[in-house]
Each structure stands twice: as C-alpha cells, then as structure tokens.
Amino acid sequence: xxxMKAVKKVLSNAIRILTIPMPSYESVxxxxxxxxxxxxxxxxxxxxxxxxxxxxxxxxxxxxSAKAISExxxxxxxxFNAGTSKEWTDFYIKARWGVLETxxxxxxxxxxxxxxxxxxxxxxxxVIIEEIRMYEDTPVLRIGEIFEQLIxxxxxxxxxxxGTELTVKSVKRNDFLxxxxxxxxxxxxxxxxxxxxxxxxxxxxxxxxxxKLPASPAGGQNSxxxxxxxxxxxxxxxxxxxxxxxxLVLGFLGNKxxxxxxxxxxxxxxxxxxxxxxxxxxxxxxxxxxxxAIRTSVDHYQDTGYLATYAGVDxxxxxxxxKVMLNQYYGISSKELRIxxxxxxxxxxxxxxxxxxxxxxxxxxxxxxxxxxxMLGSVKTPQEVMAEIDNVTxxxxxEVAQKFFKPERLNLAIIGPYDDQARFERILK
Length: 429
Prior knowledge:
Layout: E1 7-10, E2 16-21, E3 27-34, H1 48-55, H2 66-75, E4 79-84, E5 89-96, H3 100-112, H4 118-136, H5 139-151, H6 165-170, H7 173-183, E6 189-195, H8 199-210, E7 235-240, E8 246-253, H9 262-273, H10 279-286, E9 291-300, E10 305-313, H11 318-333, H12 341-358, H13 362-376, H14 382-390, H15 394-404, E11 410-416, H16 421-428
Parallel strand pairs: 2-6, 7-11
Antiparallel strand pairs: 1-2, 3-5, 3-6, 4-5, 8-10, 8-11, 9-10
Helix pairs in contact: 3-8, 9-12, 9-15, 10-11, 11-15, 12-14
C-alpha cells in the first residue's frame, strides 16, 4: 500500500484541518464534520440535527434556494450530500481538484449562512415525516434503531436520529438558530480534504472560507455528559408487525470508540459474521437454511458500544436461528468452538483487504481520517491500523469474547409477526 498520511493544522478559531494528499488523483473530496448529532439534542427537539442537515440544502446567503445550490454543484461536475449520526453531522462535495475553491465556497456558505426560510421548514417537515414512515415500513433498516432503543434504554442514544413525527412537527426556526449557535462552532468542526491537492492550498482555502466561524458558543459547549451504561441482564424488545420475514438483531454491550481492544473486536466480528465463509453465515444460512441475510458488526460511540448480529429469517424458524447464533457466541467465549490460526489469518486479510479497497475512494479516505480525529483527537495511518491488526493473537480475541458474551450483557430486538415477548425471553435464559 502506498503510504497515506494526514497533514494537520488548527486554525485560530479551533477548526481542525486534515489534508490527505493523493498526488495521482484528479479528484478531490472536501468534507466538513460537525461534532454534534442526535445524542446532543434535548428530547423536545429530537431529530433537529437531521432536520438542520436537510435545511442547509434549502438556501444560503449567496445561493438563496435549493435550485441555486444544486445548479452551481452541477456546473462543476461535482456530487454532494450530507449525513447525520448520533454523534456527528457531515457534509461533502466531491469534484475535480481544479474546482476545490468553488467547493469550499459552496459548503462554507451552506453551513455558516443557511437562510432557514420558515416556508421551507414547514414544507420539509412533510418530507421528513414521510422519511420516518419509510423507515417504519422497511424493517431491514428499522431493526437497528429498535436494537439501540433496547441496549441504550434510558439514554439519549436510545432516541432515533430522525426524531418522531411529533418532535419534527413542533420544531420552529428559532430552535434551529439556538442549536446552530450552541454546536456549529470552530471547536466542534473538522475539515478533511483528500485527493490531488496539497496541504498549503487546503489550509489557505479553509482560512478564507471558514476562518470567521466563531470558535465556541458564548455559554460554553452544550454537549451531553458521558454515559455510564451497565449490563442489566438479558433483555428483549419485540416490535410486532405483520411481515413475511422476521428481522432480528442479537448482540452484547461492548466497548467505547478507541478502546485498546478495537482490533480484537473487529476480528471477532469478522470471524463471526463478515463474509460468506463466516461462522454465522455457514451455520445459520448454509447448513440450516434459517436466514437469507446475516452479518455481524461492531458499533462504537464515544463512551459505549456493542457487537451484534443481524439476520432476516423465516418467522417460523426464528427460535432455532436465535439458538444457533447464541451457540456461536458462547462457543467462542468458552473455547468449545475454537478459533483456528487459519481462521484468524483469513479474518485479518479480510479486514485489511476491505480497508485497502475503501481507500481508493477519496470520500472514504475522509471518513477514515475524519471520524478518528472527531472521536479521538488523533489519527492512525492505514499502515499503522494494518500493523495493529496483524499483531492480534487468538488469546486476545478470546479475552474480548469472554468479556462481552455474557447473559447480563445480552440484548435481542425483533420485528415480526409475534405477540409473545416472553417466548423470546425464555430462549435467552
């Protein structure tokens, strides 16, 4: 792999700039990350981070309509979009390197100077409510949120990123203004640029277009306190819905982002359920025909996380599927189902290969470096990450499995045509 490293600079208003030069590329991606998401909202305005992301595309000081913004992006042959998570919001433009200044101008104007017209706010409420209903009618997308409602019960992380129909309908223009004043500030902002451009040019443009963003809110950063989630015993959340397929997520409370065991966790999840030769795929789908789709992944937040397996199953076969999945989890933690050296080697190559493929896209390069900086305040190079993966041993993976895979850390979320939650609670016990 060609060495890839970020050049970091901090502006006077505390904005962090990361440039990742990729000299052979004709394209460049500019991403702006704001360290705020749904966990930073009050319950009254739940969903406002996502709503605000939508509204930045509805008109800015220089380009006072969605049409005006999209026309200028089209005029440079670029693509642009944004996303909201529970802990950050990001905006990006990907284009030819020669139009990078125009990309900076567009994003800075959208993010710093959105006009937030009241008429567009009211119109967009209808759009977001339809988006909420779409997710509700798409169980493969909805089940992840149901699982997080369960595993993070009682915390802001349990709330849906998109909010509810009630909170979306109640949001006013002043709510956006207050939220922006608290969170859209220099100390919460990171700019990442990767592709065919050098750091000097990027830093000059960042200063020119983002240098006047306030460093911090007048009253101090309005962020949520860290969570102290504790295992509370095996739990089930059933979302009863008449469907031809049942969807479930079965998983365990885990580590926070940046844990010293992060690479062991990734390898454990890969062995369990990444790829068509993984244990869950072979045992649940290939040997028994209990599911079409099945995969295991690790998710992290700044102070907590989890390792979980998703499956879409025949409603009549869900009991057996859950039992087989649990057997795989507990079999590794007890060492009854041992991890072979060949299996570990395959998992390592799987992760490294997918990382290498992702780094061929400048947008994914920005995500690799930007999220690390956002969550940890520092970044490792891809080469350092691969070295860390290579150094993981079988015993270290067993250590993580024994820590995670305990009944008191277990959670099961289900969407399907059932009305007896106790049935599934008995399976977990």
